[in-house]
Q: What sequence folds into this?
């Protein structure tokens, strides 16, 4: 059984085919990247996977279950987390609070139990401690210690991207969708991010779907790459295969270099 | 000028405004909709309590409990029937929908219970008064309003700060998309917000009705004042709204004592002034929603 | 598509309404050999619906008249139209009654603003209107040959109440709580004129908007003025809030109020019993009277003909306001015309049934300035304090 498989995925907006008959399959615990020029339908694919858009055709099968038709919160419950190109954070809350919201799914305590932690040994208190430990781990991992109590609205762009990544990790996902995580970062930050993504793959045992413009980063970390243009699949394969495809060179790499 | 007595009266009615404003804010916080049916939802619930008391002769606590359940169900149902089916609604569209719900409820109440004023009493004797300090009389109604609204505030504080659902509500209010991605069932959050808001509104409605009279139009004026108190407090922060309600009651009573003919508008003048200086209200926390 | 349909529907509707407003021919005659058509508007739904009983009270009177054989061989055909206390609606329903149904005369009609909306239209169409259920100088000044008022003016009533407060209650410190509109201000003016004759002034004059729900500061002003008596020219809800708030702050004056709040069972109910002891003016006799033979007769008839109705002040007012037209129609004789009815109405002199004596002349169409003074007893019962009293300071007849 395939771990994560997209088949014949299509969606139109007002007659325009934004994504047309895209299929691909991702193996467990690998990094799968999607490249293509702006407006080629990359983010639209992510939005269909996370349930924000409903595709017109096709299926998205994860662990044997079709995600098409499920609401975003249900898809999140199945273990699919994501970040956004334009960052969607809880701006009026601290970094810590944002990360703790990522734990929301995993909290079982109801209204009444959660409201009153009956002593240190109660299940609610134990759960709270476990969640805090996990979040502290992520804060250490992404080096967010210095801004842990800062309101995210006042953080610089690059840091907010990291907070969003951290929050997605807090969900303990099986699949992580990262939409241009390096956008707006300087060279040094990009290098750090490169390492973190590799570490996430290794330490958190997560399958990563990545949209990126930074070719050096893509070619360095991806197990497989899908190149799209105008909503259509051009080629899918390893870095070497994709890099050498004439249409990719023409449509994408050619313009870049 | 009887400063102490005006303080008691202003604070008591202000607590009532604040309580009702909280109902407005709970919905506004989660969905950014000003629910214009809020007053009529409270009116309808109060009529249900009135009906249970007068036609079935149940004791007050039972009528109260049934009314609370009814008001929650009504809030959830109105959200489900009127607002949820709206596809890609604009804020203006949602407001128009709530106005429709308002007229519907008012019509229904007029048809069921008539337009004539009715007597609605809480199980407290409002004529029993205490005079802890000379010249400052406190009666049972004021004591009940102040203690019930304090209790509800405390519950709300704990709820929003420490419970999972409270956190989900705050998250949904700040960023609906992000909340969904976090696995929060935002639709359930909306249902809950409407039910909860309707419940608090019903309690406030009973206080207003017991002070004045009960008729299908009796909540129109208190709604305007509570809404103004909510704007004064910043529409987002519940403590801010409570303070806004209190200020409203005090300003109205002190100014209204000196210039009775200006009483109905003085608070609105103050609000316009406040909004000119601080457009987000007195107590709104500044935050950037989206980048 | 739906919007377009809606638009077309609205255009059609607007055209129909406009067309129906155009009277191509003269209005149908108001009577024939068998019937006389009489109409009344009144709020049967909406916030003012409690006053809708006036129009239904008039119906009882006409039912009784018809049961007794009608007037000079003709039965009365009576039309009630719901205007929801909305002047625009009043205009519409009155037009319909005049131009479609062919109404000969109107009786009653709750509200000043609603009446003002149709006053001129009725006069232009030479339709007689007897007993508006509102007190308004504009109904009688300048003289409108087709309009005959029964309801005593608020100014006169306030003057009589003020006199009673000073002379009978021996009150030294009087305050007034009045609604900030024509009704409240008429009450204020009338009472002030009377107090001036005693070289007295109100110790506090507090205005209130009819919609206000918190009267804390107003009541404290009244309390701190040291008033022992408070005169009220307000609506029922405001009065209920005032009494409740006063009880809350330990203020217990003698309350005196206008006749608009003389429905004691209602006021007793909505104040939770606080209305007991309140003194009010009254435009009609006590509804529970056993001495007024008309009250007894109609009350018994109501039990038979309208058992669903509450025999209260406003229901009885419907009979009171319509009563003079029955008398005048009888006098106008079988050879009926608008002129003969006007002649009969102009010669009504001292006609008294359920209320004060009513007198009209060709120069004067305010029928009375007399009010009764009553007091609310236990359980909303009526106690008569002073019989029909004229206002010796009245100005309307000068």
A:
């Amino acid at each position: 059984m395939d771990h994560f498989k997209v088949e014949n995925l299509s969606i139109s907006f007002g007659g325009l085919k934004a994504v047309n008959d895209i299929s691909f399959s991702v193996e467990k615990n690998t990094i799968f990247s999607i490249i293509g020029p702006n407006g080629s339908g990359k983010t639209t694919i992510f939005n269909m996977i996370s349930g924000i858009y409903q595709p017109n055709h096709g299926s998205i099968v994860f662990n044997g279950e079709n995600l098409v038709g499920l609401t975003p919160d249900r898809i999140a419950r199945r273990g699919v987390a994501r970040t956004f190109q334009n960052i969607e954070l809880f701006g009026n809350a601290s970094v810590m609070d944002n990360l703790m919201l990522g734990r929301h799914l995993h909290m079982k305590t109801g209204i009444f139990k959660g409201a009153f932690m009956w002593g240190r040994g109660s299940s609610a208190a134990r759960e709270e401690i476990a969640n805090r430990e996990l979040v502290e781990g992520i804060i250490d991992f992404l080096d967010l210690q210095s801004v842990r109590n800062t309101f995210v609205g006042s953080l610089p762009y690059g840091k907010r991207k990291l907070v969003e990544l951290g929050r997605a990790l807090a969900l303990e996902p099986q699949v992580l969708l990262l939409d241009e995580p390096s956008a707006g970062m300087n060279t040094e930050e990009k290098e750090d991010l490169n390492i973190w993504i590799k570490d996430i793959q290794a330490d958190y045992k997560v399958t990563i779907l990545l949209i990126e413009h930074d070719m050096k980063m893509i070619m360095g970390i991806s197990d497989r790459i899908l190149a799209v243009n105008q909503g259509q699949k051009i080629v899918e394969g390893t870095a070497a295969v994709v890099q050498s495809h004439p249409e990719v060179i023409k449509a994408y790499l050619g313009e870049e270099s | 000028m009887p400063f102490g007595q005006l303080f008691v009266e202003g604070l008591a009615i202000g607590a009532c405004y604040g309580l009702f404003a909280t109902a407005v804010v709970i919905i506004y916080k989660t969905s950014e909709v000003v629910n214009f049916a809020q007053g009529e939802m409270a009116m309808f619930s109060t009529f249900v309590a009135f009906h249970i008391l007068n036609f079935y002769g149940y004791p007050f606590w039972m009528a109260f409990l049934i009314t609370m359940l009814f008001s929650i169900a009504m809030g959830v149902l109105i959200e489900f029937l009127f607002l949820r089916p709206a596809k890609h609604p604009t804020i203006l569209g949602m407001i128009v929908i709530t106005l429709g719900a308002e007229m519907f409820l008012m019509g229904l109440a007029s048809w069921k219970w008539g337009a004539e004023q009715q007597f609605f009493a809480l199980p407290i004797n409002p004529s029993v008064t205490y005079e802890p300090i000379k010249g400052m009389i406190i009666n049972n109604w004021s004591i009940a309003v102040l203690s019930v609204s304090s209790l509800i505030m405390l519950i709300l504080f704990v709820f929003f700060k420490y419970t999972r659902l409270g956190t989900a509500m705050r998250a949904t209010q700040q960023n609906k998309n992000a909340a969904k991605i976090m696995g929060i069932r935002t639709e359930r959050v909306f249902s809950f917000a409407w039910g909860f808001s309707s419940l608090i509104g019903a309690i406030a409605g009973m206080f207003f009705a017991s002070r004045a009279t009960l008729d299908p139009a009796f909540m129109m004026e208190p709604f305007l004042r509570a809404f103004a108190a909510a704007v004064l407090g910043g529409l987002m922060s519940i403590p801010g709204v409570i303070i806004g309600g209190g200020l409203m009651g005090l300003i109205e009573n002190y100014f209204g004592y000196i210039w009775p003919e200006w009483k109905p508008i003085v608070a609105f003048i103050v609000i316009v002034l406040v909004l000119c200086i601080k457009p987000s209200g007195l107590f709104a926390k500044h935050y950037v929603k989206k980048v | 598509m739906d919007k377009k349909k809606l638009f077309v529907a609205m255009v059609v509707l607007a055209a129909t309404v406009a067309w129906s407003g155009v009277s191509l021919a003269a209005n149908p005659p108001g009577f024939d050999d068998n019937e006389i058509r009489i109409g009344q508007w009144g709020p049967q739904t909406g916030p003012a619906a409690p006053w809708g009983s006036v129009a239904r009270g008039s119906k009882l009177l006409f039912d009784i008249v018809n049961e007794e054989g009608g007037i000079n061989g003709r039965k009365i055909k009576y039309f009630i139209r719901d205007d929801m206390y909305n002047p625009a609606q009043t205009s519409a329903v009155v037009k319909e009654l005049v131009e479609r149904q062919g109404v000969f005369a109107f009786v009653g009609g709750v509200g000043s603003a609603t009446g003002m909306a149709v006053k001129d239209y009725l006069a232009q169409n030479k339709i007689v209107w007897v007993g508006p259920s509102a007190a308004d100088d504009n109904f009688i000044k300048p003289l409108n040959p087709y309009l005959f008022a029964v309801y005593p003016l608020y100014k006169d009533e306030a003057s009589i109440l003020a006199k009673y407060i000073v002379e009978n209650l021996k009150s030294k410190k009087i305050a007034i709580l009045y609604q900030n509109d024509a009704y409240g201000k008429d009450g204020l003016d009338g009472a002030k004129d009377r107090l001036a004759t005693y070289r007295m002034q109100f110790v506090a004059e507090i205005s209130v908007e009819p919609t206000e729900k918190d009267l804390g500061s107003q009541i404290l002003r009244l309390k701190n003025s040291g008033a022992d008596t408070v005169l009220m020219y307000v609506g029922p809800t405001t009065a209920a809030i005032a009494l409740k708030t006063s009880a809350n702050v330990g203020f217990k004056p003698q309350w005196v109020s206008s006749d608009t709040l003389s429905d004691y069972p209602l006021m007793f109910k909505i104040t939770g019993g606080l209305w007991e002891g309140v003194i009010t003016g009254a435009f009609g006799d006590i509804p529970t009277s056993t001495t007024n033979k008309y009250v007894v007769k109609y009350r018994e008839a109501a039990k038979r003909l309208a058992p669903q109705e509450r025999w209260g002040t406003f229901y009885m007012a419907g009979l009171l306001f319509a009563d003079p037209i029955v008398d005048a129609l009888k006098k106008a004789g079988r050879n009926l015309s608008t002129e003969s009815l006007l002649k009969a109405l102009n010669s009504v002199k001292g006609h008294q049934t359920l209320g004060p004596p009513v007198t009209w002349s060709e120069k004067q169409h305010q029928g009375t300035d007399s009010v009764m003074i009553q007091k609310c007893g236990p359980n909303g019962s009526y106690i008569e304090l002073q019989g029909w009293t004229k206002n010796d300071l009245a100005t309307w007849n000068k």
